[in-house]
Automatic annotation (TrEMBL):
Transmembrane segments: none annotated. GO terms for cellular component: cytoplasm. One of its GO terms (biological process) is nucleotide metabolic process. InterPro entries: ITPase-like_fam, Maf-like. It catalyses: UTP + H2O = UMP + diphosphate + H(+); dTTP + H2O = dTMP + diphosphate + H(+). SUPFAM superfamilies: ITPase-like (SSF52972). Its EC number is 3.6.1.9. One of its GO terms (molecular function) is nucleoside triphosphate diphosphatase activity. The active site is at 71 (proton acceptor). It comes from the Bacteria. This is dTTP/UTP pyrophosphatase. Keywords: Cytoplasm, Hydrolase, Nucleotide metabolism. Its cofactor is a divalent metal cation.
Length: 194
């Protein structure tokens, strides 16, 4: 019998990614606020937030479910760029990233309810932006795509034109490192994405 999969995320991008595969899953959003502490190491921050979300949702489950949670952050010059709270903040973030290299880290946590089986890990992708004019950044912000996006851009949308190259998983930048997730689900939880 297929184990019940729970995606502990309200992200439409993560839901869409998992929907591409031959698994049934339910969505139960976590109530954990995404609080980023500037003093914490970025990878640890992403993994900690993912674990908090997965743990929050797993406590609402009964038995045997596999809860998957993730948190994606953008890191530039050792500082975490979260989700911008305004157009001005989005402009500032994108101006910083213009012509530069940054890192996208997705921490993820998988918990099997009713057992002690849990994995907390991360994936990292290096992204290089081309140089952006102020006008191009302002036009992008007017699309509204920057909203609710770490680093103020979406690689799968209009933001794709900013990206000169990446080193690592494209899907990790979208919000879920599918290949790594599949390996861990199969090895430790007996679940295959297809």
């Amino acid at each position: 019998m297929q184990k019940r999969i729970i995606l502990a995320s309200g992200s439409p991008r993560r839901r869409e990614l998992l929907s591409k595969f031959n698994i049934n899953f339910d969505i139960v959003q976590s109530d954990i606020p995404e609080i980023i502490n500037d003093f914490d190491e970025p990878k640890q921050t992403a993994m900690s937030l993912a674990f908090q979300k997965a743990n929050d949702v797993s406590l609402k489950m009964t038995n045997g479910e596999i809860v998957i949670a993730a948190d994606t952050i953008v890191v530039f010059e050792d500082k975490i760029l979260g989700k911008p709270s305004s157009e001005d903040e989005a402009f500032e973030m994108l101006s910083k990233l213009s012509g530069k290299i940054h890192s996208v880290i997705t921490g993820f946590a998988i918990i099997e309810v009713g057992t002690y089986n849990k994995i907390i890990d991360y994936a990292e992708t290096i992204v290089k932006f081309k140089g952006l004019t102020s006008d191009r950044i302002k036009r992008y912000i007017r699309t509204g795509e920057y909203l609710d996006k770490a680093g103020a851009y979406a690689i799968q949308g209009y933001g794709s034109i900013f990206v000169e190259w990446i080193n690592g998983s494209y899907w990790n930048v979208v919000g879920l490192p599918i290949s790594k997730l599949d390996d861990i689900l199969e090895r430790y939880f007996g679940v295959r994405l297809f």
